[in-house]
Design a protein that fits this description.
Layout: H1 11-32, H2 37-62, H3 69-108, E1 109-110, H4 114-120, H5 129-140, H6 145-154, H7 170-195, H8 198-206, H9 211-240, H10 243-247, H11 253-263, H12 267-292, E2 310-311, H13 314-345, H14 347-386, H15 390-404, H16 407-433, H17 445-469, H18 473-481, H19 486-515, H20 518-523, H21 531-540, H22 548-569
Parallel strand pairs: 1-2
Length: 585
């Protein structure tokens, strides 16, 4: 009689048993989970998509085909790094001072036109920095109306007869950046000042502090987290900018990456410069966290009172009104008037030079990108709601990193993997069925959609998470108790309630996609023009006036989202029964 030994199974049977045990464990784990594993798979795919540009950039930097890093270290990097840091420092200081001062003036004082100034101060965000740079060069250059008027007024014959600040310079770039980007700080500071405790401010005043001393000793320390967040956005925009600094002759890291890649045809060198920029981003985000210091400010009472405004009348009120709207005039009115003048004078030429095709491409690209970004953000936000594990938390944080990545770095990090994928599919189909697919993603509009979705996912996620936070968790529990799955709950319960948040998210992504320039320049298909590249191309040829109509279309498209953003961020005090009436109007 043969007695089988369980330890003497064949290797094949042992492998099959191990596979069966593994499948059983996976099924048992999945059965214990309250939701489908498909949500985790989707989150993992989004995380992979967010990490792909950074990983590719680092890989290109450490394994270049031609290592020119020593040359870049000697010639390109020192100047580019210094110019970038100087631009960030100058624009950061100006925006911090302008935005904070304007927010304190509007929040704590009552003067003629205060409510209007509060809304006007955010409008410069609708102006892309490169368009403002083009407009101010037109205004302030030697042949522009300002210098021409001065020469006619004082009888000067040439530039040697007088001194005038050069707009095509680092100082000009700082001025342009600050004039457009200060609303980031203004909105953050305004929201913080509105929410601060009136008691703390009144105690400072009763102890003999002047309004300025109260700002310095009480309001600014309490607003430090908000100011740090607004300033971080300003600095990221300075890092990302390409069109303005290129036109103004400032050699920043973004411009150096563009030149090394396209003009010197060295992808590895561009990746090495991009790695330096990534290091700057990490340091900047770390500094922003340190500046916030984990500070959390909250009220200890459920009772709220209106802010005790100080009335400014007479010449003081007029001066306050003038100072309040001055940033708006510099950041929006003067460039807009220049755009409008050119758009009217050169309307015929502007319409004939590809305006409609560029506008159609921009609208189509922005619409598709907003849909994709909102869909991805909805997956991240809803997954975090139904299963708040480490993976979903990481995905939510990684989405913010996409917005921090400059467009030049994003394009560099996406181009190689997309091209490799296209080549692999083409080679596989050629070897099997003899068909060449060519470029499926890289060099097509799909690459631009992917880049926009990665870059603006954080914009959509913020709005969607805000909407989800307003939906009671009891609705989820009730739906699950009635037999609904996570997907059907999303479709039948959450989506109808999220329509306003989804619309706001899509609108914000749409406008950002309309304005995006660096990634579009580097990833667009051949002979594919958007309004941003259309304006950039004419400005590069010193024919900006013929593209003024396209620039005006970009600006107008951004006005509504900016005003909606102001309403959302600078709303009323918590506990106020009438919203923003007492604290904004």
């Amino acid at each position: 009689m043969n007695i089988s030994n369980p330890q003497s199974t064949s290797p094949r049977e042992s492998a099959a048993q191990r596979l069966g045990h593994g499948i059983a464990r996976i099924r048992a784990w999945q059965a214990q989970r309250p939701h489908s594993i498909a949500w985790l798979v989707a989150i993992a795919a989004i995380l992979f998509l967010m990490a792909l540009p950074i990983a590719t950039t680092l890989w290109l930097a450490v394994s270049p085909k031609e290592n020119i890093w020593p040359h870049l270290m000697r010639t390109v990097l020192p100047g580019s790094l210094m110019q970038t840091l100087a631009l960030m420092a100058g624009a950061g200081v100006l925006t911090l001072v302008t935005g904070t001062a304007a927010a304190w003036l509007v929040t704590m004082y009552r003067f003629p036109g205060r409510a209007l100034a509060d809304r006007l101060l955010v409008i410069p965000l609708a102006m892309p920095t490169y368009i403002v740079a083009y407009c101010y060069v037109e205004l302030l250059d030697y042949a522009g109306p300002v210098q021409s008027g001065l020469r006619a007024l004082f009888g000067w014959q040439s530039a040697r007869d007088y001194w005038f600040p050069e707009i095509r310079s680092l100082y000009g770039a700082i001025f342009v950046m600050a004039s457009v980007l200060y609303p980031y700080v203004y909105l953050s500071a305004r929201a913080s000042f509105v929410q601060q405790s009136v008691c703390a401010l009144e105690v400072a005043r009763t102890l003999g502090r002047t309004p300025l001393a109260t700002l310095w000793a009480v309001a600014l320390p309490l607003a430090r987290p908000a100011l740090a967040a607004g300033l971080a956005l300003v600095l990221m925009e300075c890092l990302n900018d390409l069109g303005a600094v290129q036109y103004l002759g400032v050699q920043t890291l973004s411009q150096s990456i563009y030149a090394t890649w396209l003009q010197r045809s060295n992808l590895g060198g561009a990746a090495q410069l991009a790695t330096v920029m990534l290091v700057l981003i990490v340091l900047m985000l770390s500094a922003e966290r340190w500046a916030r210091g984990g500070a959390k400010v909250h009220h200890t009472t459920g009772r709220y009172r209106s802010i005790p405004f100080e009335d400014l009348t007479g010449w003081r009120g007029l001066l306050a009104g003038f100072l309040a709207v001055l940033p708006f005039v510099i950041g929006f009115v003067l460039p807009f008037l220049q755009l409008a003048r050119h758009a009217v004078v050169y309307a015929g030429a502007g319409l004939e030079r590809g305006f409609f095709q560029a506008a159609g491409n921009s609208l189509m690209l922005a619409a598709i990108s907003s849909f994709v970004a909102v869909a991805l953000a909805l997956v991240v936000g809803y997954s975090r709601r139904i299963d708040p594990n480490r993976l979903t938390q990481l995905a939510a944080r990684a989405s913010g990193l996409g917005y921090a990545i400059p467009g030049t770095v994003l394009a560099l990090g996406l181009l190689i993997p997309l091209a490799s994928f296209d080549n692999a599919v083409d080679a596989a189909l050629k070897s099997t069925i003899g068909i060449s697919t060519g470029l499926l993603i890289s060099g097509t509009m799909m690459a631009l959609v992917l880049a926009y979705a990665v870059r603006f996912l954080a914009v959509a996620l913020g709005s969607i998470e805000s909407g989800l936070d307003r939906i009671s968790p009891s609705l989820d529990a009730a739906a699950r108790a009635l037999g609904e799955t996570a997907l059907s709950t999303l479709r039948r319960v959450h989506l109808p309630m999220l329509l306003p948040a989804l619309g706001a998210a899509a609108l914000l992504v749409f406008v950002d996609s309309m304005k995006e320039l660096p990634a579009t320049l580097l990833l667009r298909p051949f002979n594919f023009e958007t309004l941003a590249t259309h304006v950039y191309s004419f400005a590069a040829l010193e024919q900006f006036e013929e593209a003024a109509l396209g620039a005006l279309a970009i600006v107008v498209s951004g006005l509504v989202p900016v005003l909606l953003l102001h309403t959302a961020v600078a709303g009323g005090r918590a506990g106020s029964r009438r919203g923003t009436r007492n604290d904004v109007d």
